[in-house]
Amino acid sequence: MKIGIIGGSGLYELPGMRDLTEFRIKTPFGEPSDAFTTGNLQGRAVVFLPRHGRGHRILPTEIPFRANVWGMKSLGVTHVISVSAVGSLREEIQPGHLVFPDQFIDRTFHRESTFFGRGIVGHVQFGYPVCHHIIDVLGKAADQFDVPNHRGGTYVCIEGPAFSTKAESLLYRSWGGAVIGMTNLQEAKLAREAEMCFATIALATDYDCWHESEAEVSVEAVLAVMHSNVENSKRLLAAAIAAIPEDRPCTVPDALRFAILTPLDSIPEQTRRDLEPLIGRYVQGRP
Predict the structure, then answer these.
(1) Residue 149 in 3-state DSSP?
(2) Predicted local distance difference test score (pLDDT) of residue 113
């Protein structure tokens, strides 16, 4: 197994990694957000990538999601843990708490969310977008460090970069949303197409704008919560990485087995080459 960590706001490196090597990868989907860093953490092979690039220079809409996930897959990643700063949509999810969402609502409009196309059609199952065996490990690690956490909940993914209006925030609450962010939905979808187990660590920094006290929250206060959350996520990741089971007790490792509808001998050669890390084991021996 090899565990990929996608760092969000404030998490641009992963302390404790040893035997570090950087890879600049060219992908069929453009340049990834930054160099991939490989190494070992808690005796496990790990690949780290800062989602927004070092220096936080890439907008959510500009993130090259396909290049990032393709790069992870090409490096042999089997599990992806995505770290993301979010706003809370529930009173009980207080700033400073961690959430491990198990559902998503997509409110993005300008992003590529699939590797399929260009002569190949595929439809993966996505009813359950997160692997609960990873959530269980993350939750136990959070409990170990006495970090308040919530297992499950719906992550509403908006386009950004502006935050929601109050009317939108209230709407998402009425839908049952737990947290709101701008990044994780595409990563979850692409990870499923790449047959990689996926989970999110959502770091609640504020109450979004629905909460009556939100106007009183200063930028300094949000940044202070974010810093605390990031430090908690680093400790949490180190413990969780060591505890993730070798076996994958889910259907994700075979997500593409019955998903590709295009006859294998009809897939264009260039598309087949571009998707080799994903579909190679299904098209071996085909022209």
Answers:
(1) strand
(2) 95
**Which residues lie below 8 Å from residue 242, measured CB to CB, with a gap of 6+?**
42, 43, 44
Q: How many CB atoms lie within 10 A of CB 97?
A: 22
Sign of torsion over alpha carbons 185, 203, 36, 42: negative
How are beta strands 98-100 and 197-206 bridged, if at all? antiparallel
Domain spans of the chain, in order of start = 3-283
Q: Could you tell me the pTM of the whole model?
A: 0.94
Contact assessment for residue 83 and residue 7, using Cβ atoms and an 8 Å cutoff: yes
Predicted pLDDT of residue 121: 97
DSSP letters along 130-182, please?
S-HHHHHHHHHHHHHTT--EEE--EEEEE--SSPPPHHHHHHHHHTTEEEEES
Catalytic residue numbers, as ranges? 206, 208
204 forms bridges with which residues in the sheet? 86
- The one-letter amino acid code at 251 reads T
Task: Spell out the CATH class of 3-283.
Answer: alpha beta
